[in-house]
Specification:
By secondary structure, this protein is an alpha+beta fold. It folds into 2 domains: 188 residues, Alpha-Beta Plaits, CATH 3.30.70; 41 residues, no CATH class. It contains 10 helices and 4 strands; from the N terminus they run E-H-E-E-H-E-H-H-H-H-H-H-H-H. A hairpin with a 3-residue loop joins strand 2 and strand 3. Helix 9 crosses helix 10. The longest helix is centred in the first third of the chain and has 20 residues. It starts with 6 loop residues before the first strand and ends with a helix.
Length: 235
């Protein structure tokens, strides 16, 4: 992960089975997320806890913060579930999936994608009706101490009332199918969500290509080298 770049994280239950069984489980997960985020200096901008998976939008101060949070949180929560429900074995479907995002172009779309997830799933008609979501702070009237607003979110208005009105108005316009697909695909494939210049910047920083690779493509293809060259020589 790249410091100070927002990251969309998805972690799913094994074989898409439930990872939350009762109200207490959601509360335990969020409490440990708060503790781990504080310990590893990671900011949580928004979240939604679905029955069999979670979405998080995080920003870290260093390269390892988010991985450390997810490892600490994941292992703790598995032990909690196995002890509480007298079960054994894995809970999560392998390692979490993640996507670094160009904040200027995609951040607010990620907020909407995450907090509207229960609506798209047909579970509720409005995000306010789903209890395990950061919407209640970002767009509602509850303060969740876990949440640190991203600077771009803070720029939506001069005060909290203005920001929430702007954000709620934004939620009235559903994300396009193309945007939903783009966010879902880049995260599940652990690719970067951004334009060519942003992808080239992150690729150079991580010393590996992190954009979408067509079948049979080469990570050091001419297209990538051209993008990197343009980025390096931009005014």
């Amino acid at each position: 992960m790249v410091p100070n770049v927002p990251v969309h994280v998805i972690q799913r239950g094994n074989n898409r089975q439930a990872c939350f069984y009762q109200t207490k489980d959601y509360a335990v997960y969020l409490k440990k997320l708060k503790e781990s985020a504080k310990k590893f200096t990671v900011r949580v901008h928004c979240f939604v806890l679905m029955t069999n998976h979670v979405h998080l939008l995080l920003t870290a101060n260093d390269y390892t913060g988010i991985s450390n949070v997810m490892q600490s949180l994941g292992s703790y929560y598995v032990r909690y579930i196995n002890t509480t429900y007298e079960r054994t074995g894995t809970l999560w479907e392998g390692r979490f999936k993640s996507s670094l995002a160009d904040s200027e172009e995609y951040l607010l779309n990620l907020y909407r994608y995450i907090e509207m997830n229960p609506v798209r799933a047909g579970m509720v008609r409005h995000p306010r009706d789903y209890p395990w979501s950061s919407y209640h702070t970002n767009g509602g009237d509850r303060q969740i101490s876990l949440i640190t607003p991203h600077p771009l979110f803070l720029s939506l208005g001069d005060n909290e009332r203005q920001r929430k009105k702007y954000y709620n108005d934004l939620l009235l316009s559903p994300l396009s199918e193309n945007m939903v697909h783009q966010i879902s695909t880049t995260t599940n494939k652990s690719r970067v969500l951004g334009n060519a210049k942003f992808i080239a910047q992150i690729s150079q920083q991580l010393e590996r290509y992190v954009g979408h690779v067509q079948h049979g493509g080469d990570r050091r293809s001419e297209d990538f080298l051209e993008i990197a060259y343009i980025n390096n020589n931009a005014d």
